[in-house]
Design a protein that fits this description.
The chain is of the alpha/beta class. It contains eleven helices and 14 strands.
């Protein structure tokens, strides 16, 4: 790795729950975010020795990173951090979009980045990526810095807790009032006069619940972030709307609200408590969080509960995770969100339109954890599956 890298690669931990090539890819993605444009990476052989894996595993990880736009590989010369926008005395900031993301290591965020980068390139723009490394203080500093550099606009993916933080809203309002074009990614924050590109979170909760109701389930447990953030509030609204529309009464004991931070463990514990107290408390469990999906399935496995024979499960956004590929889940169109964000930032709602926001529908991907026929996308015509 380049001597300018901030953190030695050997000190980064691998995610043991993922296949080896994904462990390598996730670790490299985080490390690359700390490097400079044009920095050369170690050879495949060197990284294979470092990670104690086969060279083919490293090669597969690097191919993924190249496809995502993080690196460029030159035959015979090596692999380099892909060229991105840099701000300097000669930089034309009117052709640069500032992008502030929580953590590029997250699969969802990397998909969002890919959509943004593709749309920006087609429009002849560069993207200045700012990775917050899950540090909210750093997020705010980066927003202030970008606003003072005259970029064409700023696209920001707020942390979940930001949506209920008055100080955060005040910061974004001030930057917007100072004339900085902005768009929110995957978060709508009430009270902000800033356009947002989001998945319809109400539909996320509604479609998961409706699907289970249509399969005949009467007692559906729903795990969500709920009142802890705006996303959870909307997903919970969808869950309740589906129950009401289909004549079901909500059981407060089956509505479980958990903060987003490290929520797999609390979700696991909540399910075990529920079913240990009453094995017949519910016949189905749904959630709007990927990490909660993992926690739910782990708890059911430990309890010896068969899925879907005893309890059906609908999770959320298990994209590219081979361990959970069989799970029925709601899926957000994240790459489309990225493209739409660039369009909205540059074009607004369009000519003669009062539209301020972009709201995209989620999909429902049918797996084997709900008892329905697998391999289809419920409610969508074949062309949209």
């Amino acid at each position: 790795m380049s001597p300018r890298s901030r953190q030695p690669l050997a000190e980064l931990d691998l995610r043991r729950e993922l296949p080896k090539h994904q462990q390598v890819r996730e670790t490299l993605r985080r490390h690359i975010s700390t490097m400079q444009t044009g920095d050369r990476l170690s050879s495949d052989r060197q990284m294979a020795d470092l990670f104690k894996v086969d060279r083919m595993i490293v090669r597969r990880a690097m191919l993924d990173l190249e496809a995502e736009g993080f690196v460029v590989r030159h035959q015979g010369h090596g692999t380099f951090v892909k060229k991105t926008a840099r701000l300097g005395a000669a930089a034309d900031t009117s052709k640069i979009i500032g992008l502030v993301l929580p953590d590029v290591e997250m699969l969802k965020i990397s998909r969002l980045l890919k959509g943004i980068d593709e749309e920006a390139q087609e429009r002849g723009l560069s993207v200045l990526l700012n990775n917050c490394n899950l540090d909210t203080r750093r997020e705010r500093v980066l927003l202030e810095k970008l606003a003072g550099q005259g970029v064409a606009g700023i696209a920001v993916h707020p942390f979940y807790d930001d949506s209920l933080d008055p100080a955060y809203s005040q910061l974004l309002n001030r930057l917007s009032q100072d004339g900085v074009p902005m768009v929110l990614l995957d978060q709508y924050i009430p009270g902000l006069d800033i356009p947002a590109v989001v998945t319809d979170k109400v539909q996320v909760g509604y479609r998961a619940t409706e699907h289970l109701i249509m399969l005949g389930h009467q007692k559906i447990c729903y795990l969500t972030t709920g009142h802890y953030d705006v996303t959870g509030q909307n997903c919970l609204k969808g869950y309740r709307m589906a129950l009401k529309d289909y004549g079901r009464k909500e059981d407060p004991d089956l509505t479980i609200e958990i903060p987003i931070q490290n929520c797999a463990g609390p979700a696991h514990d909540a399910v075990k408590r529920l079913l240990t107290a009453n094995a017949n408390a519910c016949t189905a469990i749904a959630t709007d969080q990927f990490s909660m999906t993992y926690g739910i399935l782990k708890a059911l496995d430990e309890l010896g509960v068969r899925v879907p024979d005893d309890i059906a499960v609908v999770g959320h956004d298990v994209y590219q995770n081979p361990l959970l590929a069989h799970v029925t889940h709601t899926l957000e169109p994240v790459q489309e969100l990225g493209r739409a964000a660039v369009k909205l930032l540059l074009e607004g709602g369009g000519k003669d339109s009062m539209k301020r926001h972009v709201l995209l529908p989620p999909k429902l991907v049918i797996g084997t954890t709900c008892g329905a026929k697998s391999g289809t996308d419920a409610g969508l015509p074949p062309g949209n599956r």
